[in-house]
Amino acid sequence: MTSGRLRVALLFILVGAVVHPLLALVRTAFPAGSPESLMDAVGSPSVRACVLLSAGIAAASVLGAAAVGIPLGIAAARLRSGSIFKTAALAPMLMPAVLGTLAFWFVFGRGGLLPTVVSGFEGEFRGVGAVLLIHALTLPTAFTLLVESALRRADPALFDAARSLGAGPFRAFVDGTLPQILPSIGGAAALVWMSATASFTAPFVFGTDRTLTTAIFVERQDDPARAAAIALLLFVLAAAPLIVLRRSSASARKGAYAAPPPSRGSARTWLLAIAVPIAAAVVLPLVTMFALSFVEGGRLVGGFADARFSTSAWTTVIGGSAELPASIGRSLLFSAIAVVVDIAVGTSLVLVARRASTGWRRLLLGLASIPFAVPATVLGIAMAEAYATGGFLGLGPPLVGTWAMLPFAYAVRNLPLLVQSIDAGCAMIPSGLEDASATLGATPGATVRHLLIPLLKPAIAAGATLAFAACTGEFVVSILLFDPATKPAAVAIHDLFRTGSFGVAAAAGLCLSFATLVPVLVLGRFSRAETTASTT
Amino acid sequence: MTLTLRSLSALFPGGRGIRDVDATFAAGRYVALLGGSGSGKTTLLRTIAGLHPATSGTILLDARDVTREAPHLRDAGFVFQGFALFPHLDVGGNVAYGLRMRGVPESERAGRVAEALAVAGLPGAEHRAVGALSGGEQQRVAIARALAPKPRLLLLDEPLANLDAGLKAATREALRALHERLGLTTIHVTHDREEAMAVADDLAVLIDGRLRRFGPCRDVWDDPGDADVARFLGMTLLPVDVSAGRAQAPGFSARIDGEGVRGRTLLGFRPIDLRIAPGTTASVTRRRDLGDAIDVTVTCADTTYRMRAFPGSPEAALRPGDAIALTLREGAGRPFADADVP
């Protein structure tokens, strides 16, 4: 296929997979072309309250995640043991979302760790407070990663210049280093805002039914047009800070200036004193959930003294009904299919965009990034609307109710992860290498096969790792689109939790995590692999 | 292989690039393509290789028109300025790449790779990682990679630019020796006059995208053809008044060749050609000892002369404050009658 035809084919795929569902959502929100539903929704006091609550939760979540993520990012960049803090921040991201949320129940909920060890801690772990705490401890990954990366790129000469002019270490950091990492902090804040407004699992599980995401779910039962209208409002609210996500023009540092040495002395002590408790708080829910999965009933209702240790929860998951292992297997299979599709589409897309004109490049990569800007609830509703009556682009039988619905939805939802990772990898390949390949007799196709794909392997593996982890734990899209015959693990675990089978829910969630971890580790090896090969 | 360019233009949006280049690079010649930054020399090389599209004109390799052919179909080896070694392949993999692309059987490849590495001066390096090589070694791998498919035309884009001074001189000699051994038609892009003179048979000078002078090195050096090329090749261009075969300027008088040259004109000469003459109309204002040579600055009224003297010569003894007059070594001055005189 020529690159022109491939370009058109990819555009066709993106229009079908991304634009068509969103148009279906707009059609539902404007029945018979009338904006009545949208106007009703905008004018309704209850919806306005939802918008305010969602915006308030998002704003507070940004502050909370920044308070947790920024110190971890600084510790990751400036301490010799930095990788520990980075791993702690990554842990919530690599766990299935539903598991990361449920884990908090085991720490703060009735019969959880804290009510047991702290006398007088009887508060209900529900409502906005619970959601904010969960967001603060599960969303700081963006802050940690972007701040760490910005600090490693920052020019230490500015810090040294401030010190040489008489500033103390803190003042020199504020005047010399902070301005260099502010764009990254802004970018992370925008990402957290988008995640927090789009957050469904925490409000849904912990009883906040007045956020936009939960309102969509509730309204959808009775009034699909109103649900679609609220979904459009949510899209606007979530995407609002996208303007902040401008690519910072990080100019290469000139001259041979050494990287800043790790922090020492009192700076190191302070950093450790702040970062260690934060890292512990981030991983505590998962550790607690693991521990309580070995306690009868998964709760410490009668305190430690009455706790009976047992492996019954694990036995139920592994040796009980075949339904749980089957749902875990299905989740892994659906995720694998979605990731393979994303690798094929994402790689083709980036390679075609690399050689295309600026207009085509913007169009293709812009369309591919839309699922990243659209909250999962909105995408789920849009797909439910689009594929209830037809298949891809309205052609063929409906996708909803078939086994293909979830892999397809997972692939669309996570395509931006692959595209962004591969595009970043591609940007690192000097165009001179392709020229060299051409002068050595390689056709454009051979250059892709023998040069670009091998060089892109680490980026593809990194994107596939993130996408696979995200797919296996995908809860929002799953609960909106699943068919009872093909129930995925995230929904099955949530059902267990709702019916009070806490221990089994924890064990099943952890089984899903371990099962996810194997392919993630394999892909991780590829992304770090020594790429030099001999092909004489 | 003879390379012929006929009215070749390759323009970027905005009008920069190369225009109307006509030249024949004879088989087996080593040509240095010389020009300043932005003169179009790399664009010309990339256009010959097919990496940049020709806007108009023709490129012939022997009698074959390759103007519209894709790069992989042209029989040209290319050594890139930054070497462009493939980081995912070891040295052997890099050198074998062109052989794989041309479908050379695997059984034959190892021998051809070893041969190319030996020719480039890096025998036995097949299994080394390219990231672990020094700059000079990477350059040799890049040369071996370009030579392995046995091209009939070798294109070198500033091949010495990334090397330090010592390595540069050694590699220059190695390139020349390689050329004498293989006899490939070679085009070597550089902005360094000394490098061009040292390594090439012919010199092609590009200025503002146009080929302004092309010929054997000594001919071009001695007769740049026009004032722009002369200035690029390091000549001083002095406005003089010519009458009765003598050029006059403040503090300066010299006999020149050039029948029919009269009146105001530009006289080109090199700093090494200035000599002390009887008289005290000019004065020495600065002296800089460079070790192998001495730079002397002489001024008279508004005119400043830069003289290069060699230890042991009378000019080397000059000191600031000395009053002198200047003339030229016999036969050294070249008038550019057509140039605009300031």
Task: Describe it.
- The complex is a heterodimer of chains A (536) and B (342).
- By secondary structure, chain A is mainly α.
- Chain A has two domains: 1-29 and 336-536, Orthogonal Bundle (MetI-like fold); 35-245 and 269-302, MetI-like (MetI-like fold).
- Helix content of chain A is 75%, strand content 0%.
- Chain A has helices spanning 3-29, 36-43, 45-78, 82-94, 97-108, 113-117, 127-138, 141-153, 156-164, 169-198, 201-205, 212-222, 224-239, 265-292, 303-306, 312-319, 323-355, 358-373, 376-387, 405-427, 431-439, 444-472, 476-481, 489-498, 502-528.
- In chain A, helix 22 packs antiparallel against helix 25.
- Chain A is globular, with a radius of gyration of 24 Å.
- The two termini of chain A are 29 Å apart.
- Chain B has 342 residues and is of the alpha+beta class.
- Chain B has two domains: 3-231, P-loop containing nucleotide triphosphate hydrolases (Rossmann fold, 3-Layer(aba) Sandwich), CATH 3.40.50; 236-336, Nucleic acid-binding proteins (OB fold (Dihydrolipoamide Acetyltransferase, E2P)), CATH 2.40.50.140.
- Chain B has helices spanning 41-49, 91-101, 106-120, 135-147, 165-182, 193-199, 217-222, 227-232, and strands spanning 3-11, 17-25, 30-35, 56-61, 64-65, 76-79, 153-157, 185-190, 202-207, 210-216, 236-243, 246-249, 252-255, 263-269, 274-289, 294-300, 303-309, 323-328, 334-336.
- In chain B, the strands form four sheets. Chain B has a six-stranded mixed β-sheet with strand order 6-7-8-3-9-10, sandwiched between helices. In chain B, strands 13-12-11-14-19 form a five-stranded antiparallel β-sheet.
- The two termini of chain B are 45 Å apart.
- In chain B, 42% of the residues are buried.
- The mean pLDDT of chain B is 91.
